[in-house]
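Methods — Computational structure assignment.
A single polypeptide chain was analysed. Its primary sequence is given first, followed by the predicted tertiary structure written as structure tokens.
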Amino acid sequence: MNPSLELQTAINAAKAAGKIALSYYQTNLLEIKTKKDKSFVTIADIKSEEQIKKTILEIYLDAKFLAEESGGDLNEKDFWIIDPIDGTRVFIKGITQWSILIAHYANGEITTGVCYIPTQDMLLSAEKNKGAYLNGKQIKVSDTDTLDKAFGSFGSIRHYKNFDPIVNLNAMKAVMRGFESAYGFSLVAKGSMDIVIDAYATPWDYAPFIRIIPEAGGKVTDFEGKPWNLNTKNLVATNGLLHDQILKVINEK
């Protein structure tokens, strides 16, 4: 693996933020507030996001951002997408599935993606046409090609208008379990899981995987099979071999 300056900057930012987040994790230092959308934000989210921006700005002086805690402008042509702690609820509860997500968006696509899971020292990364990596070693998606052998996960069920997608997949004998979405996407990328479906997500929830999963040989679309864009609200991520089957099943009534 020979990362570009862009990718190395994202890696450095994620690791620096990870140290800060871990310093608050499972401690009594955590200050928790409720946002307007009823989600939580902690002092660790704020400090992690500040560190990511600082690290990137040291290299890219004019960098712009779209970040969960401080916002940004979707109309910009070039910016960094940040989720300082994806899975704040599990972070608060002391569960290990939270991650730090950083992606670079330019010319209508994600050029670089990084997902760092500090509690497991897992760093997934990818840049365009250079493959996907876990801790510096190249990774590939699974070779599962039938639903009865598939293992997958789904995002928060409160965002589903009905449970048809999940029920249909189980009816086809696919084994589905609930995971944090970013954690599930990571497992798809490294071949430990075959499917993730998520009925609702914002760009910072999934941006790195728009690059990481395809570079690992998988596929990501919305529920209708359309390519990703900044306004995409639901996602299907698979090893590619199962993708058309998944789309058909989750859209059946």
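Note: The chain has seven helices and 14 strands.
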